[in-house]
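TL;DR need structure tokens for one chain.
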Amino acid sequence: MIRDFKDFLGDFFEKIKSSRLFILSVIYAFMVFILGSKLFTMQMVNGKEAQDKYVQKIKKTVSTTGARGNIYDRNGNLLAYNKLSYTVTITDGGYYKKVNDKNNMYYRLVQILRKHNENIEGDFLVAVDENGDFYYTTKSDTARLRFIADMYGLKSLDELDDKAGKYPSNISAQEMVDKKLKTYGLDKMTDSDGNIYNLSGQDKIDLINIRYEMGKKLYRRYEPTIISTNISEEAKIDIMENTASLIGVDVENDTLRVYNDAVYFSDIIGYTGKVPDDKLDELLKERPDYTLNDIVGRIGIEESMETTLQGTKGSKTMIVDNVGRIIETISEVESSAGNDVYLTIDKNLQIATYRLVEQQLAGILASKIVNEDNPNTDTTDSTHRLIPVKDAYYQLIGNNVLDTTHFAKADASATEQSLNAKLTAQKESILVSINNELTSSAPTVMGGLPEDTKAYLNYIHSALTKKSIIKKDNIDTKSEVYQAWKNETTSLRDYLFIGISSGYIDTTIFFNDSNYSSAEDIYSKLVEYIQNMLKDDADFDKLVYKYLIRNNVVTGRELCLVLFDQGILNMDEAAYAQLAAGNEGFAFPFFIDKISRIEITPAQLALDPCSAGAVVTDVNTGEVRALVSYPGYDNNRLANSMDVAYFNKLLEDESLPLYNNATQTKKAPGSTFKPITAIAGLEEHVINATDTVVCTGIYDTINPAIKCWIYPGSHGPESVVKAIQDSCNVYFAETGHRLSTDGNGEYSSELGIERLKKYATMFGLDHKSGVEIVENEPQISDINPEQSSIGQGNHSFANIQLARYVATIANQGTVFELSLLDKVCDQYGNVVQDYTPVSNYHVDISQDTWNNVREGMYRVIKEGSARKVFTDLNINIAGKTGTAQESKTRGNHAFFISFAPYESPEIAVTVNIPYGYSSTNAAVIAKNIYKYYYNQISLDYILNNSALDVSDVRIGD
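>> reply
TL;DR here they are.
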């Protein structure tokens, strides 16, 4: 048996040895042995050494930004440039697999930046106050709702407040923060020991901002996300020293946009910032390499010349290790700088004009503010209205010159604490009074309330409307209740209560639709809502302060003291002592003196007038030499990383610094339009140079009659030249009437409007001026030819449009598309493009017409009522004044258009002052601009001057 088994095995092995599979098996076994030995040596014998030498290699391509081009004035003075800065970015390369690990890395970064007082940037529009309470940073209810809708991922505001209750619009800032903390896993973020972090309010905001910004790149994770800009050298070093624990974080060399003489040029140059989400697609059409991280022009020349100023990107392809260290650079394409832009603007002329405008406005205010409570009556005309000083005192609070939030802080001055105590006591009393009025069974009708109580209740109505609790679109304006509210014959209590059943009060904010509630229950909740709303309403606090000032509870003396306490005014020990001693009589002259010295500016007070525009144009080229909008702002604080607090303050500023008064503010031109009426009348042969119209002081051919400014006086017989000189309304109303009368003696207002429009269009008043910044469309009047002939009707033009019109008169017919651009040069100074304003058409009228109109404008200055203003000007000019009344309770709008020298025109100067009372004030500004331009006064003289004396000359227009 055993022998048989041995024979079997022998035969079996003989067969195997003779098989090819045996040879292969031996070879395979040998290879497995060798491989196993090698792996054993690598992992067990030399494993640690191999691990130490191992480096993960990753290919990475990054783009490099080309430097943005500079902006210069026409003489090569630098207005905008770049300086080196450092930007913190994060790229999500997938290194952190767990959400908690990723959040911990972000938290480490936040702590490093916080240590160096650097800010985290982001568009999560919630902030935390000093008490640790969260609040929305949006400055309108619509913006808040848009943000909330974005946070829910909704496309439309209409999707808010759905029936399922998933998307409530009344979510508080605290609730929004809690929601995002949970979404991002920050509410359960733990340290290495498993302990949940006790995050501060600012920690939460910073971490949410990082996660929110990173989320925008969800499908472009290879792109770095900007987290903080313009960080210090110390912060950069700290981050780089911690790169091993900050995988994906990088500090990149960047540039910071800087603006010289910012306030004077901000409305022209604008500022830069990150690409807005809704702007990226538009930019990609211009250039395919734009990303959301790019810094681009947001407004002004920075925006209009974006692709010219923007540098060309380069790229660098590198091999980096697993912590981002560069091992090798494979290839590199150099970036190139953007082109430089030269403006037509003369820097010194711009600065001089701005300061002259400010000085004149200060002079007007100093002359108009009086130490009286009620200086105006129902019969006070718009030229002679005065400003009660209490209104001026209030504006220190109303226009946020003083920081009222500091009144309640621990380090508040004694005066600030006193003011806060007065507000608190008064507000408590007011809230009780309001509650009584809203819950009374016999509430007082609005017309029967004291002025302050009525103001408080009207504020509530406005606030509820802004919050869409009162739904304006649901109100039947023909209903009895609405008419009673409009006529102040009902109470706010009744108006709101009826609104619940009438459907114009949104009740869903108080009760779910699924639950039935009585009108009484809903109204009770509404009253509770109003009380809570007013408790922390800063605008309501301002209203309370307004009446505290009017009622002498808060005094001008106290407010002047706080100007020193908060550093608004430089300390003057003697003046401070006078105010602190309780000298109420000292406050008024002190206050006026500070206005006259422009230590308190017209912009800060935001009274009438607080704004103006002035344009200086080369009449022979169409180049703009100066374009001033007062007030300006510091665009350095908006560029690069926007100072949100400063931007919001600008938005709230009642002087509207972000609104360009030279290109956007549109008003009726008043008598500055009369030269066009004269040209239309002469060219259409309805008047001639020798014809006269007798001015009786009133034009009663139409109804209602038009009074001349000289009424109840009269001008007597007026020719076209003398009518321009005297700005006679009767003459030009008659001309407008004749333009409306056809050859058969038939009157047609449409014909008159058509003819006036024809000539206004010839002078470019039918379209924008051509300047390369934001500008509103002009409007030529299409009603009432007689009113339109004297610059009223519904004409509406910006200063820059009047500038082109008067320049066309000066050069006798060339209508330029005005420009702010002189040339574009590359970084080496080579001219890439030369900008010469174009003229698309010419005004072809008779030389006699030109002569008559220009002579009339010359005589306005030499023989008309404006002559006394210009007696100290050593150059001949031609001009036309204009005033336009918009409100009987505010000053007239003031205009002046002009050119010089009269004999051989070189420049045109146009000035507009909204609510500037009298065209005299605009004319004085223009005169001083001419004085500077023609070397009669120096820039140093202007810079060292204070408020200008207001001329008492009354110009008739």
